[in-house]
Amino acid sequence: MKILLVRVSSLGDVLHNLPMVADILRHHPGAQIDWVVEEGYVSLVRLNPHVRKVIPFALRRWKKGLQDKAVRAELRGFFRDLRAEQYDYVFDTQGLIKTGIIMAAARVRPGGQKVGMANGTEDSGYEGVSRIFHSRSIPVAPRTHAVQRGREVAAAALGYAIDSPPDFGLPAPDPARRPAWMPAGDYAVFFHGTARDAKKWAPADWIALGQALAPLPVLLPWGSPKEKEEAERLAAGLPNASVLPRLSMMDAVELARHAALAVGVDTGLTHIAAAFVRPTVEIYADSPRWKTEGNWSPRIVNLGDTGHPPASGDVIRAAQRLLEQS
Q: At 67, is the secondary structure helix, strand, or coil?
């Protein structure tokens, strides 16, 4: 059986799609699974050794350079790679027009199916017109967890029941391959930055948490000049904290994978730490917890909810308990 997964973005959503791979292979051990994903997330998908082929997609970059012969050649190469196989099933678990077009361009064998969601979940970016590209549309409940969504679509199409916790297929940290910039011993990482200010946790609370964790080193990553300034302000109040240099996405993944403790707001890197089943505290301040909470391990604690960020004391107690248990 040959299967193509179409989930192109964003970081957290691509991550939350990974358990589909383990589910399919548990029930169809001989399946060959390919994946179309934005070029920036190719390395993340390749961490899962059970994905046979990753097909990079770069719509934003291509749109800006359509006058360039090299870009047009790359675009033709994408469709050539996409259509090189005949698939038994193509799954679009994003439900956008652009992912529907990818699905439409993919080839299926006679009797093959193109399967997607019949509806979106609450506050999702689902575009209903994407259903025109489906041969079968699977309904999902309005409040279906981001991980569960894709799992349910594949299970319904392939005829099996979901009977296990999600398995992201991500390898455990390898101490021998620890990056040189990373501390040799245990550390905590604070994923404090996110694009939407309302999702952030108060700086005073981050400082209180860091002080409570001392002398454990605290590492502060950042992804924009504004986040760097915020990290520097936090570090000024924490003698055990250091601001990291700008990291590539895969360096940030390694940062999450090796952490003795990860604490973060509702953002992709926090969810990556949870997917690696590192001791993780997820902080929800302005997003619904039901949608992305790490609910597959007792090593993950989820606090807060939309409009109700957790108190620093609750996060401190959760973090200390996780460190004691690990």
A: coil
